[in-house]
């Protein structure tokens, strides 16, 4: 019984054509399905049908889909979520296009989390026989896959408990008011497997999205992305820089609707037995942006 | 019930003082314990007591230790290994310094595999409170941790089955004589979690080591390592180059006793549901060394 | 008759011991000579005696020394500077330690520029016989050499003419109020040879220093520097990022006295026949910081 | 009176269509002019009309064109070449398409060297007003410009003298039989300005080409090029690796006709007063390929 990874992000965008230009032409996601008001996308190194669903109308996060290892895992997670006090719904196969049946959890932070066990397999863009190391003709940044999301919640301690107790995530890093056991968490970074984070939660309003992230290979790819953002007039929030927390290399930027995206490279490999890291509030800026050790107002206040 | 990772490698070296110079001064491992004829080492980003044990006398692999998630996992793995037809021994706490009790499996390939659930926790060199992204005064290459091992076996298909059926590893990539189900495997790359490989097995004599590997951050670190190898007169086998198989960036080199090491950076994150890649024998050289697409005699024949 | 390069920078620092910690321990310059109130430094890949002179007392730029190819060049440059209307002094051998005789030009921008033809040769830290590609035991950032300086002047057009007409520099890039011939320059980047700039001048008060820069190998080195700045509590102004102007990769930071330094990597190779680039004021922020396209107040106002 | 740089390389190729695929589709040079049996190309960051001319028929080097600073330089170089004992011809404007008048020197090594002072200016692919840092839609490797050539000669000392005495090049590095003044040179690396080499000559048959090189930005670009070589079936000779001599990062590869090319990144900036480096024959392999310190037979024997 295990959650494997963040499998899909549903985001709302004010204009689908502008969003297409951003996610397809600049980021290089592959459009896999289009219908009026909706665009489904995948990265070149993803094998499942899609990882991003853009819905026209409004802005912000629709829901996050996490893939579990086995169909039989759903019952257990459903039970635990209910015991934790969450409302849970069953979802049917096809309710999300190309996605199996699953469950929908309404989290204590007022986000919608879907768990599913299967999605139509379409294969990566390099195939399974003598594959090239990347597609010969990548578009733009050429992001290979989505990586994680960062959401806000009024009670971060509660969300840390939720992901740990309900979904077996473990905490890799934390910002806490103190090193004591009863400290209040300002942020928590949590892993479902060996990623340095599959989800992160920081203190803020309920139900909001800070950003969702795409993985890149390394620091050189991060600058290449940044250069393309300049060429394509993508609004950049912060970066390129280095995180203290997670050690990832990063640029934060906005899609044309104002949803924050991140390109994220590196970060260490984590394991459940790795000791959890704690950052104290006075070192928060260094934890977030290691090199410059400054937070800008926009980064801490703009949410969708 | 899960294997987490390769936790330690025991290697034999002809001269411990030469080996110390290689593993400590050049690679930058931290010596954590020394006794006559034996040296225990760890990388700066490892939190368990040690990951490399060097024993003076001879050359080659002593044994590989894999850490499991829970003490209770041992019984299950023991049973499965026995059912697979392997000889299995119980090992006691302290039989390996600072290592818990566990089991010792004599694999069909005549290697010794130890499973254990605990090792004395010493913490990484950057600590758990507001940690720096790496230690301020790294030595030499400054390898953060071990990564994987590649061993040889007469029957690779059998070893693929062994790791899959006994230890729940899954195959990420394979070199096979054909794409058919009954193909003979020339090599198999297998993951216990999300690493692109925790173990690899290629066709060759029983009980031998091709190499064990240290992880590096990225392609820039690989060249930096190579430059230090030149300065320190480390014998380099191949690289820097790019693997087709695993997509890792790599240099192969030898310790002073002739054991092959690798520095390995990158490689994609794998999951059990990622489609397995197959390489055909005509593309083997490209699979191993993507850029040059040539194998040298030494790389395919020198084993310890 | 040619200026070769920026050979030395004299900077004033409020506290020599703090400055030593910054320039030696963090940046990795080699102290080559110390006397009360003064410290002379060189980078590992510089062969002349020193490139940075720190004088205790105050803050800001003392003078810039440019090395010319031939002793006989001095007469010509002296004549031209006088014709341009500058006060020029002869300086004697030894007036600057280890430096030959030369001339001292008081520029229209009220900076002091020294031209000299020789400095005591001490050799690089890797020597001239079978040299390693860098010293085996670099300290901190390990800057190989100084690169350029950026100064401010009330009349940038005049300074552009000064460097062109007196010293045979040519302009590689400019920020100008328009593309017309009579445009007012807001900044000018000028080369004495093939560097993308040996000097830059931006509009501002007379006689001030914006920054002087050290060269690094590439973008990976820039982040490594930034990480060390975080560890050593170096105050960072902006970066890491990419310049549009010059295409250099950069971090701006301050020494403990508040003098701005830069680490600078890349930038194209220029030639006198390369067409000069012009940036228009509306694209200034993109020209300076290509990825983020934002200027902070500090960057444009803090001078020493 | 100064040579600025290698401005063009004329190479013979057995099949122009195959060559086009290599130089245009893989390397990303821009075709600027085509006529039956001939193709003219330029890199995206070159402003003169072309830098590579491919002539169908045979294989090997046609001639090397070096651009001088001023038309009046030609007379002086002509005189010096004649005094050195070389045959020199005047060439007329248009004899080479889009190239000014100049002189043609038949070197002691039986190569043809052309000096010219002007070529039709076409501008770089990013223009001169608010330019992007590279073209938004680069093709393949996207080489920005040519860099240098390495030729063979029976008498390297003589060629070192030729370039120094006739063309004012200076030697940055040398492989010599000893450190004595009367040593025989096995190779010489020479600069006309601040490049670490504008020409190199190694001992071998008269009139032959070892390789000509394209510049890349950094080590990340070198691997990216190597990956594309694998995808496009470009025959790779050696690399990616690091040179000891010049410190450049490199891959050697062949065009479809068998002419060796190089992608070259980095290398230090040189100046006439930088002390010349000498490599001794026992360290030759380390000088050429720093990391692996091995020369393959092909690298030392295949010439065109």
Automatic annotation (TrEMBL), chains A, B, C, D:
InterPro entries: Catechol_2-3_dOase, Glyas_Bleomycin-R_OHBP_Dase, Glyas_Fos-R_dOase_dom, VOC_core, Xdiol_ring_cleave_dOase_1/2, XylE-like_N. Its cofactor is Fe(2+). It is an enzyme of class 1 (oxidoreductase). It catalyses: catechol + O2 = (2Z,4E)-2-hydroxy-6-oxohexa-2,4-dienoate + H(+). Its EC number is 1.13.11.2. Residues 5-118, 145-266 form the VOC domain. PROSITE patterns: EXTRADIOL_DIOXYGENAS, VOC. The keyword Metal-binding applies. It comes from the Bacteria. Keywords: Aromatic hydrocarbons catabolism, Dioxygenase, Iron, Metal-binding, Oxidoreductase, Repeat. One of its GO terms (molecular function) is catechol 2,3-dioxygenase activity. It holds the Pfam family Glyoxalase. The keyword Iron applies. SUPFAM superfamilies: Glyoxalase/Bleomycin resistance protein/Dihydroxybiphenyl dioxygenase. Gene3D superfamilies: 2,3-Dihydroxybiphenyl 1,2-Dioxygenase, domain 1. Belongs to the extradiol ring-cleavage dioxygenase family. Homotetramer. This is Metapyrocatechase. It comes from Streptomyces caeni.
């Amino acid at each position: 019984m295990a959650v494997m990874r963040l499998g899909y992000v549903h985001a709302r965008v004010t204009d689908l054509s502008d969003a297409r230009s951003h996610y397809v032409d600049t980021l290089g996601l592959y459009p896999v399905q289009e219908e009026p008001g909706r665009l489904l996308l995948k990265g070149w190194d993803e094998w499942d049908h899609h990882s991003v669903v853009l819905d026209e109308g409004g802005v912000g996060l629709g829901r996050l889909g996490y893939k579990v290892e086995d169909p039989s895992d759903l019952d257990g997670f459903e039970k635990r979520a209910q015991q934790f006090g969450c409302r849970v719904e069953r979802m049917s196969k096809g309710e999300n296009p190309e996605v199996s049946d699953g469950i929908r959890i309404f989290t204590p932070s007022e986000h919608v989390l879907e768990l599913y066990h299967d999605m139509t397999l379409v294969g990566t863009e390099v195939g399974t026989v003598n594959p090239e190391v990347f597609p010969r003709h990548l578009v733009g940044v050429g992001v290979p896959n989505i990586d994680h999301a960062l959401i806000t919640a009024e009670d971060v301690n509660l969300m840390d408990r939720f992901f740990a107790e309900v979904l077996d995530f473990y905490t890799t890093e934390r910002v806490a008011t103190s090193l004591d056991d009863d400290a209040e968490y300002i942020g928590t970074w949590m892993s479902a497997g060996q990623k340095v984070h599959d989800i992160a939660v920081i203190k803020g309003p309920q139900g909001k999205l800070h950003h969702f992230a795409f993985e890149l290979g390394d620091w050189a790819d991060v600058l290449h992305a940044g250069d393309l953002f300049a060429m394509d007039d993508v609004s950049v929030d912060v970066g390129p820089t280095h995180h203290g927390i997670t050690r990832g290399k990063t640029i934060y930027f906005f899609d044309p609707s104002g949803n924050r995206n991140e390109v994220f490279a590196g970060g260490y490999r984590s394991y459940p037995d790795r000791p959890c890291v704690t950052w104290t509030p006075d070192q928060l800026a260094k934890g977030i942006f290691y090199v410059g050790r400054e937070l800008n107002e926009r980064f801490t206040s703009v949410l969708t």
